[in-house]
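Changelog note: in this version the structure field was regenerated for every chain. One regenerated record is shown below for reference.
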Amino acid sequence: MLASLTSIATLMLSTLLMMTGLGLMNYLVPLRALADGWSTVTVSVIATAYTLGFTLSCIVTPVLVRRVGHVRVFGALITLLTVSILFSALLVEVYAWLAFRALAGFAIAGSYLIIESWLNERVTNDNRGAVFSVYMITCLLGSIGGQYLVPLGDPKEMGLFVACGIVFSLALLPTMLSTAPSPAPIAEARFDLVRLYRRSPIAFVGSLLAGALSGTWGSLGGVYSQAIGMDATGGATLLAAVLAGGALAQMPIGRISDRIDRRLVMIACGLFGVAASLAMAAFGAFGVVAACIAGFFVGSVLYPVYALNAAHAADMAEPGEYVTVSGGVMILYGMGTVTGPLIGGSLMQALGPVGLVWFLAFIFAVYAGYAAWRMGRRRGKARDEKTDFQGATIPVLGADRVNTTVPPTEDGNDAPGSEPA
């Protein structure tokens, strides 16, 4: 175990710095937009550009890696991240920011894919869970640390943007100077949405809803904190609480879903999300402590639902279809992240900050309702027919990780004549 951690030390340092820059960037950008008088709808449209770039990168980055290798592509992507945030400070204009945010989304998704692919070549089945736990903690600490850099400066000035660019640039050094061998080329991810729907309608719909949930909060959570009267420190604490809830709850929820019908867990998560969202709507404006407690419980189901969908899709996949099915989950998630902020931003504009939380509650309700409806259509799988749950640190899975972290079942076929789950 110690040898495995040593072999990925430089990669984890690069990840920590990259996630610190990302946490700073994703909190700083909407604050600067609001400070310049841009509407919530405008901020949500800019966020949609980010998610479009993010989704496109899931398809393009494996091609680039096969052409020139992991290290070169990682260097290019981190450079694009740096350029995007520095240009955002130099040219504060809506149409320009659409391009800059799309560029940032493309770069960060590709970086995620490369890091996870790299990790998979450094671990074995015996230590995979432990190593990816270290990775999860690294991502969480980096994101939270970056958010707490915002109160140290003024979003209206260039200082925080330049600091973000410096942190991104520093993320290059550990990996570029490492003597560790590069991983093998990434296998191409294939996408077949029709096949995914046939195998698991609930994973198909659930992936769209999971993307809408995390895309909406991830893009507009900082805007929400400002709208309910929090300062930069309070907003960073709220965002950190949501992240912490997701990180702490993911594995317990997953392990429970390994032992009972996953759809029951999906229903429970959806209903809990409705209650937590309504609690945030009711008590979120009563101070930082109340908002953070509610936010923690929202996050405890907001992020884990993606991994539940991926696990259920794996349960239904035939031995030769796993990468195809998982690739479909990834793309549907990206589609959800594109549409969610647009609707959530419009509701915030019309109803105030509570519109965002009500929108989250509505998505959770649809998620629970659809899972319950599907349960009435077909019985669940037995425990020994299910794949083991794997926590998803981030919402996009690299093609290698899709192919290795959750091996297909030996018999994942639907029963003859039966309807998919």
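Spot check on this record: The domain at 189-380 is CATH 1.20.1250.20 (Growth Hormone; Chain: A;). The radius of gyration is 20 Å.
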